[in-house]
Amino acid sequence: MKKRVVITGLGCVTPIGTGKDEVEKSLKEQVCGIDKITKFDASEMNTQIAAELKDFNVEDFISKKEAKRMDKFVQYAVAASKLAVEDSKLDLENIDNNRFGVILGSGIGGMETLEEQHKKLMDKGPRRVSPFLIPMMIANMASGQVSIAFGAKGINTTVVTACASSTHAIGDAFKAIQRGDADLMLTGGTEAPITPLAVAGFCTMKAMSTRNDNPKTASRPFDKDRDGFVMGEGSGILLIEELEHAKKRNATIYAEIVGYGATADAYHITAPAEGGEGGARAIKMAIEDGNIPLEEVDYINAHGTSTPYNDKFETMAIKSVFKDHAKNLAVSSTKSMTGHLLGAAGGVEALICALAIKNNFVPPTANVQNIDPELDLNYVTNGYEEKTIRYALSNSLGFGGHNGTLAFKRYED
Q1: The pLDDT of residue 55 is above 90
Q2: Alpha helices in 156-290 (DSSP H)
Q3: pLDDT tens digit sequence for 213-224
Q4: Residue 161's beta-bridge partner residues?
Q5: Structure pTM?
């Protein structure tokens, strides 16, 4: 018999706030975290805007000495994990650490470290390259450092599937508990991609918005004038737990994870499959996995990147699965405020779904001035809506044709 899996802790560092309460407040007030890039001189870039972390102080979470040996993507993951564990009120002295695991996602890993150390190699020679280059750069080090921080000795892996990374990580962690291989998992994703090379690479792909004169309205999913995504950074982490384990310690339960779908487009390295058919199969798989009545799905946190193809094909995917019920769904893209956190996006958006279910609201999509006439779903665009959500879905779609969908349910004993 499959174990039931619940969310008992939420932690995040995002461009719209640190911690779940700040993020919920920002979502409801439609605070946008996008502005001019300050991390480096972006004046020669076509895109000069991003969603940076504004108030993150690493020493609030990690000692200065430890932080120096971590790339920012690792720092963000450790900080968000500490917030999730604190939120869960988990007593680390009274758990079986061998059944406490970590599965995180990151699309890029330590990009900043790689760029900095490559410059040292070119300018000063190989002897000046840091001995910490490799353990700071490799993408699995976030999950490694989080496990060290909490003594989590169970399953420990990392998922790298571009912008679907943390959705797949949460799905894998959910399945690990469901099949009985763990009691507790820290899961989600982290990314620190706002670097000269990463921004330049996306610029030359022409994938990002060039609305440099008006950063706050640059990310506009579903709008007919959308012109690309806006890069973000940060981390979203969930503590998920086997239901009986959670009940024994009287944990607060935000929501239950009930379904997971993962598919491949097998179509193109960057473009989604025609009609969003790969994404549609992931949605269908998550619904079937959770044995969910279609008409009881109330909300979808869309991948909603604000690119022409994604918004069009994701809408088509939703319609192909839900048929007549599609028009009754509330759909929003919180990337309009957080920016697109790449491999960390699914972690932050899963956290947002859990908050929405627990606190009875649908987050809005900001910046939509004229809905694209080709897009005809119920996009929430006029502020947040108070609503009881029975089931919510979170979609993530990544370069390489990776699709992931998570299904969440309002918890009932």
Answers
A1: no
A2: 165-178, 196-205, 243-248, 277-289
A3: 999 999 999 999
A4: none
A5: 0.98
CB 183 within 8 A of CB 128: no
Q: What's residue 413's pLDDT? A: 87
Contact in structure between 334 and 352 (CB atoms under 8 Å): yes
325 noted as active-site residue: no
1 pLDDT more than 90? no
Cα–Cα distance for residue pair 287/258, rounded to 1 Å = 9
Question: In the structure encoding, which two tokens stand for residue 28, read together?
Answer: 């409801």
To the query of whether residue 118 is one of the catalytic residues in this protein, the response is no
Domains of the chain: 5-248 (3.40.47.10), 260-408 (3.40.47.10)
| pLDDT tens for each residue of 38-48 | 999 999 999 99
pLDDT the model gives residue 256 = 98
Asked whether the beta carbons of 152 and 100 are under 8 A apart, the reply is: yes
Instruction: Give a three-class secondary structure readout of 52-112.
Output: CCCCCCHHHCCCHHHHHCCCHHHHHHHHHHHHHHHHHCCCHHHCCHHHEEEEEECCCCCHH
211 touches 287 (CB < 8 A): no
Q: State the catalytic residue, choosing from 163, 168, 203, 353.
A: 163
Catalytic residue check, 303:
yes
Cα–Cα distance for residue pair 47/200, rounded to 1 Å: 8
Mean pLDDT across the chain: 97
Q: Which among 245, 340, 353, 402 is annotated as catalytic?
A: 340
- Express each pLDDT in 261-292 by its tens digit: 999 999 999 999 999 999 999 999 999 999 99
Secondary structure class of 409 (helix, strand, coil): strand
